[in-house]
Amino acid sequence: MRISARADYAVRAALELAAAKEDAPLKTEAIAEAQEIPHKFLEGILNDMRRGGLVLSQRGGNGGYRLARPAESISIADVIRVVDGPLVSVRGVRPPDLLYTGPAQSLLPLWIALRCNVREILEGVSLADVASGALPSEVSALADTPGAWINP
């Protein structure tokens, strides 16, 4: 699985909003500066997140963006899906829509299992979890697995 720059920036922007004090709107410039995200790129991402129902925008001097619902109810998967679409695809196709024959037949259940595991992790972690530094124990255990941080 590849996490695009767009998805990474979207999650980081959402985390800035999750960490905002008293649900105060944050300006695009402040989010971009805090997370070192190109301002113009972030504007497009925030618009996608607004259309996807994850953030609300407010115009005016005290305007900016804030989460549309509590950070506890927004998963990392929600953010990625809004800006990038399905979590797992093969050549742009969702695994259930694929068909393999011959010795490649076993690939389909492999891709389905991969999708299941990706969903389990990304849907099981909320913005609040990450913003607070309190990842679910299952995720922390996977990150602590010997060799997890090593690229083969």
From TrEMBL:
It comes from the Bacteria. Signal peptide: none annotated. InterPro entries: Tscrpt_reg_Rrf2, WH-like_DNA-bd_sf, WH_DNA-bd_sf. Pfam families: Rrf2 (PF02082). Keywords: DNA-binding. Gene3D superfamilies: Winged helix-like DNA-binding domain superfamily/Winged helix DNA-binding domain. PROSITE patterns: HTH_RRF2_2 (PS51197). This is Rrf2 family transcriptional regulator.
